[in-house]
Amino acid sequence: MRRLTAAGRAVLFISHRMDEVTQVADQITVLRSGESVATLDRTDAGADRLVELMTGGEQLVQAEATAPERAQAGDVVLAAGGLNLRTGEIVGLAGLEGQGQDEYLQGLRTGRAAATPSDESAVRIEYVARDRRDESIFPPLSVRENFTAATLRQDVRGLLISTRRASARFEPYRNRLRIRLGRDRDPITTLSGGNQQKVVIARALAADPQVLLLNDPTRGIDIGAKRDIYALLRELAASGMAIVMLSTEVDEHLELMDRVLVFRDGRPAAGLGRDQLSRASIVREFFGPAAAEDTAQPAPTAGPQAQRPAPPTPLSPPAVPAPPTWPGPPSQGWRAADRAWLLPAVLAVALLVANVAVQHSFLYWSSWIVTFAELATPALAAMASTPAILGGGIDISIAPLFTMVSVVIEVVLLGHGITSAAVILPVAVVFGAAVGAFNGVLVNYGRYQAVVATLCMNFILSGFALAYAPSPVSGTTGWLTALGSTAWGIPGGLILIAVPLLAWFGLDRTPFVRTLRAVGGSETTAYTAGVNVAAVRTLAYTCGGAIAGLAGVAIVAQLHQAEADSAFVTPFILLAIAAVALGGTSLAGGRGGMLGSLLGAAVIFLIENLLAALNISSFWSQACYGAVLIVAIMFAARQRAARKALR
Amino acid sequence: MSGVTSPAPGRDYQPDRRPLLGAARSAAAAQRRFPLLQVLVLAALVLYVGGKDGDFSWNGLLAPILLQASFLGVAAAGQTFVILLGGLDFSIAAYLVAGNLLVTHLSGLDHWNFGLVALIVLAVCLAGGSFSGWVCHRFGLEPLVVTLGMSSVVVGAVVGTDTKLLNGMAPDWLQTFTQQSSTTFGLPVAPVVAFWVVLAAVITVILARTPAGRRLYLAGSGPRAADLAGVRTGRVWASAYAASAVMAGLAGVMLAGFSPGGNTDIGNSYLFPGLAAVIVGGTMMGGRGDYLRTCLGALIVTALNFVIAVLNVDSATAQIVFGALILLTVALYGRERRMRDRV
What we know:
The complex is a heterodimer of chains A (647) and B (343). Chain A is α/β, with parallel strands linked by helices and 647 residues long. Chain A folds into three domains: 2-55, no CATH class; 76-295, P-loop containing nucleotide triphosphate hydrolases (Rossmann fold), CATH 3.40.50.300; 336-646, ABC transporter involved in vitamin B12 uptake, BtuC (Orthogonal Bundle), CATH 1.10.3470. Chain A has 25 helices and 16 strands. In chain A, strand 1 (27-32) and strand 2 form a beta hairpin. In chain A, helix 16 (421-444) packs antiparallel against helix 17. The radius of gyration of chain A is 31 Å and the shape is elongated. Chain A starts with a helix and ends with a helix. The model of chain A is unreliable at 58-68, 113-120 and 290-337 (pLDDT under 50). Chain B has a domain at 76-289. Helices cover 72% and strands 0% of the residues of chain B. Chain B is built from 15 helices and no strands. Chain B has helices at residues 19-33, 36-53, 58-84, 92-109, 114-139, 143-160, 172-177, 191-209, 211-221, 223-228, 233-258, 268-281, 291-311, 315-333, 339-342. In chain B, helix 3 packs antiparallel against helix 11, helix 4 packs antiparallel against helix 5 and helix 4 (92-109) runs parallel beside helix 6. Chain B is globular. At the A-B interface, helix 5, strand 8, helix 8, helix 17 and helix 21 of A face helix 6, helix 9, helix 10, helix 12 and helix 14 of B.
């Protein structure tokens, strides 16, 4: 940052940490309750002055200079992972990030780390998670509902939940934790981070735990709330509760803890008693090797921690919550995810063998031509659905779109004697792309939910197709017939599939597809990084539309007719999405690719073909098809999970 | 989020000093609590149909809408649970067909005891639905694909076991139950509409005031947080999908009385319209919404069909108008917040 400012740039730095602010900033603006309170020069801004401004001069629980009366540590309530946790003590877990303290705390929570006495199961443990937004709060629900989440049964009167009782239960915690809120039926998201965290802690306390585990509870909350939480924890300890708290702030350990376990290389490397606690002693243990006298606490081989190499970074815990990992290109992760097509490929080969075993003629060249002609449409439909899904959206109007394109080709072009490939192909692709772009604009600029917008487009496009072709319209021309069989000796279906696949491989080398994956992985991260999320996604819908245009060509080439009947179109809608999922692309976005979708469509096609060849009645074969689809996707998910575990 | 302008998260709420903005904000807050705009849209549509027909009478206008909406409303109930949970159920059509065919065939043609047939339908739906939900949760599979696969299995297995299944009639009392001309305790409503009203009340109470309903919202709005708070999310998923299947099966049984004769295609006319009813009602993925909204949505979608009917257009234009009208309706209240407000 110094280098940037020296180079004449300005930095806007938002932080909750006093030391960082006073160290980094030249000018400091304090915000409180959505308003700018004051702007100070660095020289005027002592930490005390800032605290006063932030809290509005409110009476704070003083940061104790003198040691407060600390509760006598009592009996051991939890003996696990080499930690003999006694009632009335607060134990801190310290260390650089990712040194195993997180896993250790999780181990305590689930009881997996429990080693000694057998009556562990009887101990009531409550846990306050680290990631408030994803692991603690229920965003659309009210403060009261958030509070009662872990203790629903206590409010039940008869069969129903009593709102009055829930409110009454909440009231004492509200006062004790100094939670500032309007009404307890307001959504929890209307509260500040600190007050949300207090509600989460109140939820844990309502279950009346003997042991309270907290995972960095003061991360990213204001200093007033921090002080309130410290005071609360002391009070709880004094009343006999045992508390284990993971923290990334050394000052917090110094101020609050009776005992600190410092983690290094995936295990507790040292235990420091209250009298040994100092900034220097803690930081020294971060890096080890431990001083000789610190062996009072044995360093046990505890817990299920994975051994991770210590990063050779200096002590710099992140000031703001670490941003979600960017699923973008430079990491190894996406390369592994990109090979998600391997599994559908294996499945496809296995099914191919099965098909050949049942029906030897499947290997003949003539049947290959037919196979590719039949495969082209579902494969292209699946590929057309892929870009929107990669970007974290969905387009369920692909099937009516390619139907519409086939109707345009038959009715508008062939019907008027226009047969030139130089006209038909561009019209099909541009028409598809235009509708795709319209979908993209609806979703990304019109702010419709993707399912809603494309569901409506589904109705609209089906209607238009039906209006132009109430009954199937036939017609073909020389080159279209060739695409349905062979062109230049190559199966036409293969050509139709290969063109968008190769084009996509080309796009994969451009920043566009990487950015699209990033957007699908986390739109907020991408947005914060300056990506024009709406534009990238709209472009993805447009690409999908263009491929759907080719699918329209494919169906005319195969059937020599356009059909807009809903019984013909509807199966394609869901089949396309199913093929994408089967191909290893996550419907949540971010992971996967075009090749997988092609293989997914091939798998579905081969299943159907096999069942037809086996000559079972159509309804039974439908049942088999559904079962195989579920088994296939379960298999794919297991493989993904196994691969993730390996990494 | 049904409110387009919710106060930015992470701050204490501060009333705005500009009066106009303040009014807009409190209107948005009211809309978040109660589906006002949905009611207005419904009233406008009904008035339009009535005006066009020149018939505002109960039997000419309101009773037919209510009757048709009751089937859609029951069929969409399950979709509401599942969407609240953050999933999707595309097997509704299949369970609907299963309920429909089993009743018309076994009860109507083979004269089995209706209670026995109802038990069979219930068993099929419970087994299939809870399997889908459990599998989706346990292995983290895409609900869309799993429910799609399940619907093939269910339709294939039910019809495959007996291909004569496509003929038959529902028992007489079931036909009376679903006819518009019948009355309920002297009131001029079809019993099926009264049944829907009671069902809606029961579902609403279950969702809002019982631990089971609350767990559905918890698991939907914060899956990880719900796990940590001790909610057995796997059970919630299995139950929600089972309930969804049962509601679809129930709708299928009701439809057996309404339009006699089994029909394998009957499900598809309720799958996407049912989804549309949930969306138009304003229920969204992940714990935002309730069943009353879906009921309103079912009424709106049904009223839309009546609007299309009085416009007197062919079926192709009808589809176009239907899609466009839903887009317009949702534009009023159902859009996402701006990207810059979500960061």
